[in-house]
Structure formats: structure tokens, C-alpha cells
Amino acid sequence: MRLVQILSSTFAASVLALGIWSCSVQRAVDSVNLYSPEQENEMGLSAYDEVKKNEKKCTDAEANALVQRVGKRLAAVVPGGDKFQWEFNLFESETINAFCLPGGKVAVYTGILPYCQNEAALAAVLGHEIGHAVARHGGKRMTQTTVLGGAQSLLGDLLKAKGYTESTTNLSLAAVGGLAQVGVVLPFSRGHELEADSMGLEYMSKAGYDPHEAVKFWQRFAALGSSGPAFLSTHPQSEDRAKALGEQMGAADKNYAAAKEKSGAGALVPAKYREIKPPAAPAK
Length: 284
Fold this sequence. Notes:
The chain contains 10 helices and 3 strands, in the order H-H-H-E-E-E-H-H-H-H-H-H-H. By secondary structure, the chain is mostly helical. A hairpin with a 3-residue loop joins strand 2 and strand 3. The protein has a 3-stranded mixed beta sheet.
């Protein structure tokens, strides 16, 4: 009964505070970054070196040439792209992923190639990842983690000062942390994903790739299914991403029309990486 009273007073106030804060954090943190570009780049380079040490480089010449060609064309149209030290590597792995670390260090896993099918869709993927680096989402996420961690620490000190036991304090902090995760962290992450999608669409169309292939990519990617409710996901649903990109096609078509070199869908990914395998069934 004592715990219920605590959660209905102190915790309720925390819920209200974080509920209000969740709206402002997404606006404020996006304009504040505790990390300098130099710090981000240093961390990105260090992390990328570890990736290259631990991952198996793909030896398929055609696939590597595809990644290099797409990366080079995208890097050429990125605003301020000359400030990045671009590097593109393809790794042999069934992992369905790609990422770009601060400083322009890009990794692509062969597991994502079947969902790309062609050069233009790969451009949508790489453009999206490059967008994260250009928008400095990594530093902003680290800033967010620091801010939320500090807030939880202050709340813990407050509860202890009020005389609450360690177990009650920990329970309250866990509950507040869960609220922050759903109310702030996940929407913040989804917002970054959608922003990177838009940036990637702009880059690929300006680089001369058919922007409509981005929508087709996300429609294929939707075959992976959903890992849970959208509000509990760090990424927007694939269907929603395809729809959002479709709504931006007017500007993308204009960029594509103005591109000096047009490649349409471009080359197909190598045949050995083209088959889309059904997602593995969840373990029972």
C-alpha cells in the first residue's frame, strides 16, 4: 500500500514532468549537441577500425564495385561533403544492415543487398545512412542519453532525500526510465530515421538514381514483418516509411530531372545476392 501511495504521488509528478519534457526534449536536443564534430569523427573512426577488424570483407568484385560506385556518386552531391573522409566497405554477412559513422565511414552488409535488388535502391540505403552522419544524429543521440541519465540521477537523489528506501527508489527510476524510453527516446529515434530517409531520397535523386526505387525498397523490406507495435520501435514501420517517401516524390522527381547523369534503377546487384529469403521463424 505504501508503494502505491508513492507511485501515485512522487511518481505521478515524475510522469507528468517527463510527459511535458518529452515534447520539449525532441525540439531542444535536436538543436543542442554536447559533442563537437571533431569528437564525433574521432569516435567514428575508432569504431570503424574495430568493425573492419572484426567483420569479414566481401571479396566479390562486382558487389564491391557497385558499392563504391554508388557511394562515390552520393558523396559528390552531399552538401558539405568535402568535409567528410568518405570510405565505403562491403562486408560478407547475412546481417540485414548498413550504417554510416561520423566522418563518413560507411559499412554495408551483403545481407541487405537482396532487399535492394538494384543500384538505385542501394543508393536509397546509403543515402539514408549518410543522412544520419550529415545531420549528426550520433552526437545528438549521445547528448540525449547524457541528458536523460542526468535527469534520472537527479530524481534518484530527490527520492533518497525524501527518505524513500533504495528498493523503492530503484523501482521508481526504472518506471520513469521506461516512460522516458517510450515517450522520448523511441520517438526521437524514429524522427531521426524519417529525417535520414528524406535526406537519402534527396541525395539519390540528385545523384541521378530513380527516387521511386526507394519506395520499392521499403515495400520489399516490409516482408521482414514487424517486431512489435510502432510506438515501441526505434524505427518507423516499413510501410509508413514507403508512404512518407511517396509523399515526397514531387521534389525528388524534380531533383532527378535536373541531374546531369541519370541511371534510372542502375545495375542489378550480383545474382548471388539477389534472392530474398523469408525471415527466420521466431524461436519457440
